[in-house]
Amino acid sequence: MCAVTRVLALLLWAPWQTLLGAPLAELSGDQRFHIFLSNNLEFTRKIKRDVTALQHLVCDTFQLCKEEELLLLRQDLSIAQAPMERCHGRSFQAEACFSQIREGLRTYQSSLDAVLELLPGHAALVESLQLDAANLSSNIQHQLQMEDLGLATVMYPTEARGPLPAFSSHFHHQVGTFFILADFQRFLETAYRALRHLAHL
Q1: What is the three-class DSSP state of 128?
Q2: Cα dist. 134→47, 56, 114, 130, 178 in Å?
């Protein structure tokens, strides 16, 4: 039975309702995977801190601070959300989770263009965040290729961008930026928990 098959069998068997994982030896057979997790946990923490800094800027600049007060406006906005259902609960699958993290990072890297457009005075922070998202995605792709977990390892050019969200007004742009950052923060928290759980097994 291959390593990934053993991992998935363990995940399906485990009775926990929280995030599931598999022993590191099942995935790598050595310490490389553990080092990868440790390094990228710290990298993810750094990205989360930068997203938090941008959220504080949006709150201080536009007085948009509480998500519950803006939920009715969200339905009028076209904001992409990255699925992460394979990274938690009984739906956790190691291969699919890493794939969703990679794809989600690309989604938010592109969406941050709208944040950059709204906050040109903080271009250095936003562009640094976009670069970090691209690098974390690349790290995951490279590790998967090294570990031969069976995922397609397609290289995405850094200049590739999805279309910017269409906002009907400057206020909607502000609200859209608020939700892009809130969604990205939730995405990063899920990704962080998945990496941390694997690192602790």
Answers
A1: helix
A2: 11, 23, 16, 6, 21
155-162, Cβ contacts within 8 angstroms, sequence gap of 24 or more: 156/106, 158/134, 161/110, 161/113, 162/80, 162/107, 162/110, 162/111
pLDDT tens digits, one per residue of 105-138: 999 999 999 999 999 999 999 999 999 999 999 9
Specify the pTM. 0.80
Q: Do 177 and 70 touch, CB atoms closer than 8 A?
A: no
Contact of 87 with 190, CB cutoff 8 Å: yes
What b/e string do you get for 78-112 counting C-beta neighbours within 10 Å, with b at 16 or more? ebeebebebbbeeebbbebbbbbbbebbbbbbbbb
CA of 126: how far to CAs of 57, 63, 161, 169, in Å?
12, 19, 15, 22
Which residues are within 8 A (CB) of 63 and not within 5 positions of it... i.e. 6 or more apart? none
> How far lies 153's CA from each of 88, 98, 102, 103, 147, in Å?
23, 11, 10, 12, 11
Question: Counting beta carbons within 10 angstroms of the beta carbon of residue 122, is it exposed (0 to 12), middle (13 to 18) or buried (19 or more)?
Answer: middle
Task: Compute CA 60 distance to the chain's CA centroid, rounded to the nearest angstrom.
Answer: 25
CA dihedral over 173, 175, 179, 182, signed as positive or negative: positive
